[in-house]
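Lecture notes, part 5. Sequence design as translation. It can be helpful to think of inverse folding as translation between two languages: the language of shapes and the language of residues. The source text, in structure tokens, appears below.
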């Protein structure tokens, strides 16, 4: 069956915009991508993120659709990562080694609570996805965490190095002859992109501007998140580890070169100023409580950004003839983006209805 080829403009070259531009360009559509900032040095939430693809971990706080879309994304990621690697030669360190939940002995009920909550939401489906580890199996999996007597292993979860993925996607866009406009702020209307100097017409415009589309998406807000990147050769982790604690949550995502991304705060504020002393202390002391050798870790970088979130923290895919808006990926961009790309691909090949879809 022959497919229609469209002239499509995408506004916002964050995670959603880049991934969508790449996938649609591989289908032969003529894509133009507009970014208000630099393409080589992205500044959206995508650049700050930890890159976890963790449907089960997120299900604890989130409704079922986030989990379901996340599980769909887990089908796409390995295929797309391989295709990206073949096209660009870039290794984006996609890793599906599961993630590990731990708690200090006095907080053990946190693990139980997590386990019960997931079982309650997923029923028997959860059985083969969450596995209790005793001290011995924990020691085999993560030798440096051997002083914890228990853990919960979430086998399906994955992560990706976003600092490698974003440039790899840019290089794929160049190879696919996507027309790139950087330092060009865009406004979107059906079939039209408006920039400072001109208005251009397209068959379809897709708005993926994250918080840049704040006034077009009812109730869109930013939720401040802070992360730190530390380096130590003394503690080796092989997968994302989450420390469950009644007061704060910590994750540690190991990266190449003995680096670990630790995070993240979640503060109802659109303040983009540097990380606070309190957040630095809380993240550091939580990390230190996992292993004393973290005391000598070096802080390489602190990152702050705001996650684009809707009032119910669910993503929105809103269509009208000539215009699709995708937003509200909140803390789930890497978890949801492939599944949302697949929804957009479907919409492009269907007659567009005036529906607002909360996935
Ligand atoms: C601290 C932190 C940790 C996170 N960790 C994870 C994680 O582990 N896993 C996960 O799944 N998600 C995580 N996220 C969430 C994830 O980063 C976001 O959900 C995702 O980046 C949203 O993608 P987006 O493309 O919609 O928006 P963004 O990534 O913010 O991109 C929007 C782009 O649009 C551009 N833009 C804005 N206005 C205009 C305009 N007028 N014209 C043209 N371009 C414009 C911006 O410059 C930007 O490049 C985290 C986020 C934060 C802040």
């Amino acid at each position: 069956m022959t497919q229609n080829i469209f002239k499509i403009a995408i506004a916002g070259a964050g995670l959603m915009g880049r991934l969508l531009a790449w996938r649609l360009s591989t289908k032969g559509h003529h894509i133009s991508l507009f970014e208000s900032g630099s393409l080589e040095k992205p500044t959206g939430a995508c650049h700050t993120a930890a890159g976890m693809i963790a449907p089960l971990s997120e299900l604890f706080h989130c409704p079922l659709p986030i989990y379901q879309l996340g599980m769909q994304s887990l089908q796409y990621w390995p295929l797309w990562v391989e295709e990206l690697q073949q096209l660009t030669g870039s290794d984006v360190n996609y890793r599906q080694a599961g993630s590990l939940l731990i708690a200090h002995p006095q907080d053990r009920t946190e693990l139980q609570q997590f386990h019960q909550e997931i079982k309650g939401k997923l029923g028997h489906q959860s059985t083969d996805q969450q596995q209790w580890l005793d001290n011995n199996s924990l020691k085999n999996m993560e030798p440096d965490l051997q002083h914890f007597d228990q853990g919960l292993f979430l086998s399906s979860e994955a992560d990706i190095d976003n600092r490698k993925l974003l440039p790899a996607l840019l290089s794929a866009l160049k190879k696919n002859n996507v027309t790139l406009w950087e330092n060009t702020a865009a406004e979107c209307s059906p079939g039209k992109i408006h920039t400072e100097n001109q208005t251009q017409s397209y068959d379809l415009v897709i708005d993926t501007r994250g918080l840049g589309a704040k006034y077009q998406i009812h109730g869109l807000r930013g939720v401040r998140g802070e992360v730190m990147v530390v380096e130590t050769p003394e503690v080796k982790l092989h997968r994302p580890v989450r420390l469950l604690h009644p007061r704060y949550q910590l994750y540690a995502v190991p990266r190449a070169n003995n680096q670990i991304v630790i995070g993240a705060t979640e503060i109802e504020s659109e303040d983009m100023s540097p990380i606070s002393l309190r957040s630095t202390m809380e993240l550091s002391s939580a990390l230190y409580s996992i292993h004393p050798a973290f005391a000598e870790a070096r802080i390489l970088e602190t990152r702050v950004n705001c996650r684009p979130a809707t009032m119910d923290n669910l993503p929105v895919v809103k269509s009208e003839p000539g215009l699709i808006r995708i937003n509200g990926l909140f803390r789930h961009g890497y978890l949801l983006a492939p599944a949302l790309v697949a929804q957009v691909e479907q919409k492009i090949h269907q007659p567009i209805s005036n529906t607002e879809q909360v996935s």
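The translated text above is only one of many valid answers, since several sequences can fold into similar shapes. Confidence is low (pLDDT under 50) at residues 352-359.
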